[in-house]
Automatic annotation (TrEMBL):
GO terms for molecular function: sequence-specific DNA binding. Residues 8-58 form the Insertion element IS150 protein InsJ-like helix-turn-helix domain. This is Transposase-like protein. It comes from the Bacteria.
Length: 68
């Protein structure tokens, strides 16, 4: 599975919103295997804005070892 950066996602969402290309042609233009991911990005953008398109780190690190 390819991982796309927030800037790339935002660029595609904005290009889609301009209305010149639909989901399928836009996905093909940028070499995506499916337009489903682009559809999800548009929905996320409409709900959460540009911040919703940025991947979040899930791993927490601690500077001091925690003892049980």
């Amino acid at each position: 599975m390819a991982k796309y950066g927030g800037k790339f996602k935002l660029m595609l969402v904005r290009e889609y919103q301009e209305g010149k290309l639909g989901y399928n042609p836009l996905a093909e233009k940028y070499g995506m295997k499916s337009s489903a991911q682009l559809k999800r990005w548009v929905k996320v953008y409409e709900k959460f804005g540009a911040e919703g398109l940025v991947r979040k780190k899930h791993k927490e690190t601690y500077s001091v070892p925690i003892q049980a």
